[in-house]
Amino acid sequence: MLALMLVAATTSWLCPLVTAQPLCRTRTLRTGKVFPVKEKIQGDRLYFSSGKTHLIKHPCNKNLALYLGRQIFLTKDNFESSLIPFSIPSSMQVGTPEVTSAHFAGSVLLLVVNQKVYVYDYEANFWTASTGIEHPVSHVSGDNCCYSGNSFCMIRYLRPTSISQTPEDTDFRSTPRKDVYVQCDENELAVLTRENNLYYGSLGIQSSSLIKFADQNIWSQEAVLMFTDVGMLEILTPLPDMIFPAFDFQKCLLNIQALLMDPQLQAGICKVELLQGEFENKMYTIDMNSQLELTALMIPRPGTLPVPLVMVSNPHSLGLQAVIYEDGYTYNGDTKHRLNISLKQQHHWGRADPNFTSSIKRPTISTITLDIANKEISCVDLKPLTALISVGCDLEKKIVIQNELSACHHGVLDPVALQDNYSYIIEREAYDPNFQGQQAEEDLEVYYPYEKLGCPLLAYYDTPWKPVVELWREGKFQEVVEAEYVLLEMNGLFTYTYSLTAGTAGCSAQPQNWTTITEMAGDTAFFSWDRENYMSCHDPDYHEPLRWPDVPYQILGGPTENKVVFDQRNGIYIFFISIVDPSYSYCHLETTFSVYVYGAFPLSIFPPITIVLLTVATLLSVWLAYMIPQLLHMEQGLEVSGFWARLYQRCRSSCACLWGRC
């Protein structure tokens, strides 16, 4: 039905009819048949429920395909050999072996058989039944990625639905040309109708063209179409054998480019001799605030001025925009045009309304296609150039904490000692293993991972401090990160706070903190604060009331000058850092680093009033030690001395009587 709609609705013009003439070169594939055999099909023979035949090709492996008709065939060599009809083991107990849908998902084939989903591993020749699907299923579909080498599949299951039947007088066989699967490069279309009419179409960005090859006598109930290359179309028909159980295949090959050279078609001459780009059939990544530069080469036919066009396939809320710049030069007498394409999220061009997209925080997939406007149908070999664009994390990015003047550089710590299984003690009153700021029950011994962290940064305890965060890509420095980020000491140390509170940071809503984040995440992870769950207290769309303006503001960077304030304690801190700004990068930019805090005097074990009393007593003792000897040489001193002597004698006599000696 889709093919007929394209034929009827999207065609910009229709070439004159081609008179009846042989279109294709027919050959029959018959392999492995020398002696008659009595081989039987193992299991239940599958059949396609639709009255029309279909062909499903693997999006990445051009030789792998599934033929769906009254018989079902799975080929691994593009139907270049005879095949036994596809069957499912009887042990699967499928009941009626009726197939309603099929889909290649990486290295497996998904089949809906009798309203249930079955998985066939064609590499291991192994069948399994799907689990977890309780309702009946009619169709299965998904996507594959053929660029990175790792296929991924997103599957959705649909309940059985009634399918409208195509009228008998419009029965057809059709297939789109798919050079890039994410169906973005469908620049060719072929339709075969019951009336023995073959339609060939060229799909462009601005317009589409269609040509009709009439009265060819090539239609059959079992025929399917498939493109083997640009402008190369095959009509495939399975042929049963009266002696052998394996079917042969008849292939009718059509060279569309050669057919279009027929003067009767009046197809016109293609205005472009060459269109090529290094980005064709490749995958690129655009991260937030990043720009992608692509180049292509176009050689026009002399005397023509073709217009290049760039089309970006966008999800409805993505906003990816391309700008093309063209410059020309002459080489070996030919005028060549270099096409420079700049691609960036429209949200970051500064040309879009801030509310243009609602999903800027989520990564997605898009495509970019370069084509020629109003391209003639004769430009069969001049297919559009398409690349896959991953609008998401650039895996080559990472963050590094600047450490130009470390504790080892200043001689505070010895790098040799740090590498020799160095350990240190965290006192129990300074850390909490549950990261709740509560005193632990015992001291903690920590082994310092020098191989991972190197020598710690150096920070003075009495000076507010924050790290300098650098962004690196492919081993090269990019910029100093000014985006918002958070810190957490990995051993549970809580002997530090922040210079700003929620109120002094200018928050209009109650800011998040590590306590609320860990409560929300549960026991899954302590270090779970990232760009996906961060909400800025300065965001007008964040409506959490500001109930406690005096709590520490735990977010660094961004619009505030917040810093870390260390308690009066010397020692090593190992921090986990996470970039939480959702508009900086699609990546989860995280790392760990260490800081050595110095300059703090040891805390006193006595309360301040005790220290004051001890100081006064000491000063008084010193004064008495000086004054008493001086007074003893004066007249008053002699009288005082005599008084104490007489008092001593009396006490001595009284004490002797108490002991019975008087």
From TrEMBL:
Its main location: membrane. Residues 43-154, 182-252 form the CATSPERD beta-propeller domain. Residues 421-636 form the CATSPERD/E C-terminal domain. Residues 1-20 form the signal peptide. It is found in: Cell projection, Cilium, Flagellum membrane. It comes from the Eukaryota. It is a single-pass type I membrane protein. One of its GO terms (cellular component) is sperm principal piece. Belongs to the CATSPERD family. This is Cation channel sperm-associated auxiliary subunit delta. It comes from Odocoileus virginianus.
